[in-house]
Design a protein that fits this description.
It holds the Pfam family Exo_endo_phos. The chain is of the alpha+beta class and about 270 residues long. The chain is about 20% helix and about 25% strand. A six-stranded mixed β-sheet has the order 3-4-2-1-14-13. A six-stranded mixed β-sheet has the order 5-6-7-8-12-9. The chain has a two-stranded antiparallel ribbon with strand order 10-11. The termini are close together.
Length: about 270
Amino acid sequence: MTVRIATWNINSVTARLPKLLEWLESAKPDVLCLQELKCASDAFPYEAVKELGYDTAAYGSGRWNGVAILSRIGLEDVVRDLPEQPGFLAEGALIPDTEPRAIAATCGPVRVWSVYVPNGREVDHAHFHYKLEWLEALRKAVLEDAAGERPFAVLGDFNVAPTDEDVYDPAVFAGQTHVTPVERAALAALREAGLQDVMPRALKYDRPYTFWDYRALGFPKNLGIRIDLTYANKPFADAVTDSYVDREARKGKGTSDHAPVVVDLDL
């Protein structure tokens, strides 16, 4: 059985709906993990993707967050939020907000999490410490599935570049979030929990970046970073036949600032 699984920070499913539908028809993933929906769960365009054969589990609040899993090979055992997911206590708030940043489902022979890891904002900001707590909760959440025999992966926008080779110029990012040793250590802890980084092929350039800022001609100049990742257990990783960043989906006007990452499996 061949299975195509993809992840894409869509940067507003409402604004990018035509792009999303076009891409689903051309790439034909069996499972698509989405992040940064920027819409509430009940506002997701379920019917539009249903017409293309996809069932959807969506989880969003309408703010700068939200995740979903689209599948045409089954959608069962849906879980929203990590079991020990922390909340973020924004300035002036009375209680922490458990943001919709994680959703899991079993899709045919595989189980996946779609995750949108907190950005962190600035080093030593409260949101940065929240990010580290969130990544630790993710590590705990994956332990059982990572050790299992069923193909399993965590896909999404991790907001961390695993190495200096995953940013176009490490000097530009020095002292900023996404590249700090403590964030990278959190990714290393995920790998130690039984997951491995499924590295996409670089189809046009030396490095398979997944995000390019809208400003300063970031995409045409390939000033990118790789923060959209697939972290997989051994049964999943052993079944991978191909993986690539679909740069074509980042081209043109009205696109997300992220490109989809596609992983093909032979199970």
